[in-house]
Amino acid sequence: MTERARLLRRLLAALLVVLVLDQATKLFMRLMLADDLPIEVTGFFNLVLAYNRGVSFSLFSNDSAVGPYLFAALSLAIAAGLIWWALRQGRGLFALLAGAIAGGALGNVIDRLYLGAVVDFLDFHAFGWHWPAFNVADSAIVIGVLVLLADGLFGAPAGGK
To answer: What gap in Å lies between CA 29 and CA 150, rounded to an integer?
Structure first.
């Protein structure tokens, strides 16, 4: 098996794991939670059912009929670019993280195209501060981007020196 095939396999495995976990948890939460009815899990964490019509953390939220398609197209373009970049990088960690990010992006694209909004259900709050609800896809995207940034800033330079 060529190195490119190994990278693609790693990327697709991460993408599929994130995509399946994301869609399964969203379906479960849609079936189990009532709209606007939080379930208190701890003093700082609730499960809620929220529909995000914007991008991350409800930025640029709108009720336009075109909005979900525009955000879905943008997400697909970014995911495709990231996959292309990962395969050109030729690094296993980069491919794994790019797969996780692309899987999260595709999970949110499915929601936008199927429901017109992204399903969010993880709700954290503490000391009067309330973080916007998010989901598994958002978590994979944020963690993947942070690790990619850390690797780019602090990782070993390409070429092994």
So the answer is: 32
End-to-end CA separation in angstroms for the chain? 27
123 assigned to active site? no
Helix spans in the chain (H)? 3-32, 67-89, 92-115, 136-154
Residue 160 has pLDDT above 60, yes or no: no
Q: What is the pLDDT of residues 59-94, one digit of tens each?
A: 445 556 666 788 789 989 999 999 999 999 889 999
In this prediction the pTM is 0.86
Check 22, 111, 120, 123 and give the catalytic one. Answer: 120
Whether 143 and 100 have beta carbons less than 8 Å apart is answered as yes
β-bridge mates for residue 130, sequence order:
125
Residue-range domain boundaries for the chain: 3-35+50-154
Each residue's pLDDT tens digit, 98-135: 999 999 999 999 999 999 899 999 999 999 999 899 99
Place of tokens 């690797």: 151
Question: Catalytic one among 22, 111, 123, 138?
Answer: 138
Let me know if 120 is a catalytic residue.
Answer: yes
